[in-house]
Specification:
The chain is of the alpha+beta class. The protein is built from 6 helices and 5 strands. The chain has one domain: Gcn5-related N-acetyltransferase (GNAT) (Aminopeptidase, 3-Layer(aba) Sandwich). The structure holds coenzyme A. Coenzyme A (COA) binds next to strand 4, helix 4 and helix 5.
């Protein structure tokens, strides 16, 4: 059982790779993750986390419970847009372990990112939320003051993977 007052939010380190990998694999949302071995998931997370931690422009935080278990994480990328008055913080991942959802962990991870964004002089935070997701249906972000932008849509161009 987790209570939000017992949660510690700290920067992710290489020692968190296994826990992050477990959270992502448990989620089951990504085909490539579902198909690959746990070792491959860990190897990619280790590589990408190392990359994130090598630059000031990326931050990954983990949420740790009283027992020292990592139960969620958030990744944010600080984007210095030429057209904006201040940088934008783009939240690319926010995932909480299924057994620990609904206990304030996600809110706490977002609060810490919010504080960082203000310290960095950012003018906004941004994220993409699938309309079919439980978080969207329950208005998770709206309840925390986020505004849904009706005037924009989200495009992706899928690229062939390097072999
Ligand atoms: C969405 C998510 C990050 C929220 O974190 P959380 O720790 O569960 O949320 P908190 O306890 O801080 O806040 C409670 C709110 O979270 C949402 N929530 C609660 N349980 C949830 C669940 N099982 N799944 C999705 N959202 C849930 C609800 O909006 C809830 O508010 P409500 O009880 O008034 O309906 C987390 O539930 C999660 O990882 N879900 C699956 C992955 C996901 O959707 N990530 C976001 C992609 S943009």
């Amino acid at each position: 059982m987790t209570n939000s007052t017992e949660i510690c939010i700290r920067p992710a380190t290489a020692g968190d790779v296994c826990a992050i990998s477990t959270i992502l694999r448990e989620l089951g949302w990504f085909n490539h993750v579902n198909k690959e071995s746990p070792a491959d998931t860990k190897a990619r997370i280790a590589q990408h986390l190392e990359l994130c931690n090598s630059y000031e422009s990326h931050t990954v935080f983990v949420a740790e419970n009283q027992n020292g278990e990592v139960i969620g994480y958030i990744a944010v990328h600080w984007l210095p847009y030429l057209m904006l008055a201040g940088s934008e913080g783009y939240i690319s991942e926010l995932f909480v372990r299924e057994s620990d959802r609904g206990k304030g962990v996600g809110r706490k991870l977002l609060e810490v990112v919010n504080e960082q964004a203000i310290k960095r002089g950012c003018t906004r935070l941004m994220l993409v939320n699938g309309r079919n997701r439980e978080s969207y249906k329950r208005g998770f972000y709206q309840k925390l003051g986020w505004k849904e932008r009706q005037e924009v849509t989200n495009f992706v161009l899928l690229l062939p993977r390097k072999t």
